[in-house]
């Protein structure tokens, strides 16, 4: 089978197409023919040597994928050959930039018939993160207002739709006029260009001085500091990434007088602590199946062009998810 390996840390060109022996599932395992794999910023960070954890090199990365079960090990129940599944794991466990993956059944969920494989492969990281942060941690409710940084990203575009599904008002922050138009089409009520607007002042204007109820920050750096200023009394801020790879200058007076609640979220570490994401993934799959959500795929690349996928995601020019199509 073909795989994409990180042989040594460095630029996208270090992603190498290679061949490995076809794996065989052992007892309690599934063998999945991977048809699509999500590309995420954690993959980029690992490849460049800046991720906080991961397997030894050479490694196959990719935390999410979807495809068809082609073999079932002994003692597996609930899955059969021919089932379409989405699967998830940490970086390199098993790593979905590959054509065949051995998967633990506890890390797999059946895909409804009318949900496209590429859409299913996009759910376990970006969509699950947005869902858990808004619905569970922030407890976003109808009638509230949410500020979404990087609203055209995989997480952000999911968050816009999830906010609207709840009945909330969505304010999306992006980096271009094209992205403003795009997230408006997704349902964002207000759009702000971070290169032109004073985000805190604009939030103050939009909310009539009340501030937002929830701020979702997948950027870090200055965006986190802006979130603390923009959130109103009793508001909630959820930080789930630091794409900026920059420190945040925080004044505690920006949040403690307002009784603001701050949550952190890191998907892999939460799963390592025993959290089971499958119930929430099933809710997301059902919502896609029912037409409540559309999973926007901004770009799809063949497995051999994984480096191009990484370069596009690094450029910041994406709208929605980037995926690899691992089977021709």
Secondary-structure map with pairings?
Elements: E1 2-6, E2 15-19, E3 30-39, H1 41-47, E4 59-60, E5 64-72, E6 84-88, E7 100-103, E8 108-110, H2 117-121, H3 123-137, E9 145-148, H4 154-166, E10 169-174, H5 177-186, E11 190-193, H6 199-206, E12 212-217, H7 222-230, E13 231-239, E14 261-264, H8 267-272, H9 278-289, E15 297-302, H10 306-315, E16 321-325
Parallel strand pairs: 9-10, 9-12, 10-11, 12-13, 13-14, 15-16
Antiparallel strand pairs: 1-2, 1-4, 3-5, 3-7, 3-16, 5-6, 6-8
Helix pairs in contact: 3-4, 3-9, 6-7
- Tell me what portion of residues adopts beta-strand conformation: 25-35%
Q: Helix/strand-derived class?
A: alpha/beta
Sheet of most strands: 7 strands, mixed
Rg calc: 20 Å
> What is the succession of H and E elements?
EEEHEEEEEHHEHEHEHEHEEHHEHE
Number of strands: 16
Q: Shape, please?
A: globular
User: Termini distance?
Assistant: 13 Å
**Helical run tally:** 10
Which whole number gives the mean pLDDT?
A: 95
The share of residues in helices is 25-40%
List low-pLDDT spans. Answer: none
Structure overview:
With 328 residues, the chain is α/β, with parallel strands linked by helices. The protein is 29% helix and 27% strand. The chain contains 10 helices and 16 strands. It has helices at 41-47, 117-121, 123-137, 154-166, 177-186, 199-206, 222-230, 267-272, 278-289, 306-315; strands at residues 2-6, 15-19, 30-39, 59-60, 64-72, 84-88, 100-103, 108-110, 145-148, 169-174, 190-193, 212-217, 231-239, 261-264, 297-302, 321-325. The longest helix has 15 residues, at 123-137. It is globular and about 60 Å long.
């Amino acid at each position: 089978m073909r795989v994409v390996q990180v042989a040594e840390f460095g630029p996208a060109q270090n992603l190498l197409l290679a061949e490995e022996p076809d794996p065989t599932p052992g007892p309690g395992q599934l063998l999945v023919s991977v048809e699509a794999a999500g590309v995420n910023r954690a993959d980029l960070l690992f490849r460049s040597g800046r991720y906080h954890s991961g397997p030894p090199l050479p490694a196959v990365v990719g935390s999410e994928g979807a495809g068809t079960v082609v073999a079932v090990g002994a003692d597996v129940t609930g899955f059969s050959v021919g089932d379409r599944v989405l699967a998830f794991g940490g970086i390199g466990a098993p790593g979905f930039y590959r054509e065949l993956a051995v998967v633990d059944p506890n890390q797999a969920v059946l895909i409804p018939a009318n949900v496209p494989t590429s859409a299913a492969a996009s759910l376990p990281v970006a969509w699950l993160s947005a869902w858990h942060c808004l619905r569970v941690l922030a407890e976003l409710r109808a009638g509230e207002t949410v500020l979404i940084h990087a609203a055209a990203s995989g997480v952000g575009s999911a968050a816009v739709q999830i906010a609207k599904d709840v009945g909330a008002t969505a304010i999306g922050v992006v980096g271009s006029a094209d992205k403003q138009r795009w997230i408006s089409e997704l349902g964002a009520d207000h759009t702000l260009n971070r290169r032109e607007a004073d985000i805190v002042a604009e939030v103050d204007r939009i909310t009539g001085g009340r501030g937002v109820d929830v701020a979702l920050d997948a950027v870090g750096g200055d965006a986190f500091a802006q979130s603390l200023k923009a959130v109103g009394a009793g508001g909630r801020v959820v930080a789930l990434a630091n794409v900026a790879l920059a420190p945040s200058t925080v004044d505690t007076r920006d949040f403690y007088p307002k009784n603001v609640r701050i949550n952190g979220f890191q998907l892999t570490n939460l799963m390592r602590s025993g959290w089971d994401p499958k119930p929430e993934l099933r809710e997301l799959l059902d919502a896609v199946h029912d037409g409540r959500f559309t999973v926007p795929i901004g770009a799809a690349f063949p497995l051999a062009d994984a480096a191009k996928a990484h370069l596009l995601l690094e450029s910041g020019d994406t709208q929605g998810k980037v995926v690899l199509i691992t089977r021709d």
